[in-house]
Specification:
Blueprint: H1 2-22, H2 44-75, H3 110-119
Helix pairs in contact: 1-2
């Protein structure tokens, strides 16, 4: 069902682009159907009325298919919140890094886990800090 609506949506989009480009250009903008005289695709008021109606109909179909696609997508989507439940699998830090331990699965929400991590005291750094300032070699 969703694929059929997407195909219809894409055909409407292509038709809408063509209809908009066929309309008379009043400021030298994008319209290719306007111009000065010379027996075009349509002539005079007939062109304006037909293209205006076609644009309105295609725009309405475009909005309806957009809404239909949104409704179909939301029907298949489960509501999730980052504040409820733990992660399915906690990421582990590479060996030798000073990262906090992984969170327990399914215990508490995100805010409680962050509070626990904040309460834990960080371990001493495994690598001493790099010296600051210019390094001058010692003379012997």
């Amino acid at each position: 069902m969703q694929t059929v609506i997407i195909v219809i949506h894409l055909m409407v989009v292509a038709a809408l682009v063509v209809v908009v480009l066929l309309q008379r250009s009043e400021g030298g903008a994008l319209g290719i159907g306007g111009g000065g005289g010379g027996g075009g695709f349509f002539t005079g008021r007939g062109q304006a009325n037909a293209l205006t109606r076609a644009t309105a109909v295609l725009a309405t179909i475009f909005f309806l298919t957009s809404i239909a696609l949104t409704v179909i997508a939301s029907m298949n989507h489960k509501q999730k919140s980052i504040f409820e439940g733990g992660a399915a699998s906690a990421p582990t830090a590479p060996a030798g890094t000073n990262a906090p331990p992984p969170l327990p699965d399914g215990k508490g929400g995100l805010l409680e886990n962050l509070q626990k991590m904040q309460d834990q005291k960080p371990a001493a750094p495994a690598i001493p800090p790099a010296p600051t300032g210019p390094q001058v070699p010692k003379s012997q």
